[in-house]
């Protein structure tokens, strides 16, 4: 079993910053792509940012220039640095990872709440 442990969510005023972290633990050999998704109440979950094992990144248009995804392979951790936060960034943020143990499997974190007030 693989666990994705998220941290860093919270309440922040518009214009503020937060850094989300997601650490993978358990028995596995490697992690390929990792990403962050978010879901606002009444809306579908959407991709916020993703990063491949080679370091290529992809961002939702709404967060480009404000959010930065990065990873530390030695720590099996992915980060999402969020700056200039807006109320519309509010939602539950989920960590996702493609993990290889005996096979490639997709895992999700439990989600962490990000609330941006105006």
**Strand fraction band?**
over 45%
Number of strands: 11
Q: Spans of 5+ residues with little confidence (pLDDT < 50)?
A: none
As a whole number of angstroms, the C-alpha radius of gyration is 14 Å
Order of helices and strands: EEEEEEEEEEE
SS-derived structural category:
mainly beta
**SS element count, helices:** 0
Give average pLDDT, whole number: 96
| Sheet of most strands | 7 strands, mixed
Characterize the overall form: globular
Q: Helical residue percent?
A: under 10%
Q: Calculate the terminal CA-CA distance, rounded to whole Å.
A: 40 Å
Notes on the protein architecture:
With 118 residues, the protein is mainly beta. Helices cover 0% and strands 60% of the residues. The chain has no helices and 11 strands. The chain has strands spanning 2-7, 10-13, 18-26, 30-39, 46-51, 57-59, 67-72, 77-82, 91-100, 104-108, 112-117. Strands 2, 4, 5, 6, 9, 10 and 11 form a 7-stranded mixed beta sheet that branches. A 4-stranded antiparallel beta sheet has the order 1-3-8-7, with no helix packed on it. The N and C termini lie far apart (40 Å).
Give a nutshell description of this structure.
The chain is mainly β and 118 residues long. Helix content is 0%, strand content 60%.
Helices and strands, with pairings:
Layout: E1 2-7, E2 10-13, E3 18-26, E4 30-39, E5 46-51, E6 57-59, E7 67-72, E8 77-82, E9 91-100, E10 104-108, E11 112-117
Parallel strand pairs: 2-11
Antiparallel strand pairs: 1-3, 3-8, 4-5, 4-9, 5-6, 7-8, 9-10, 9-11
Spell out the key features of this protein.
mainly beta; 60% strand; 118 residues; seven-stranded mixed β-sheet; four-stranded antiparallel β-sheet
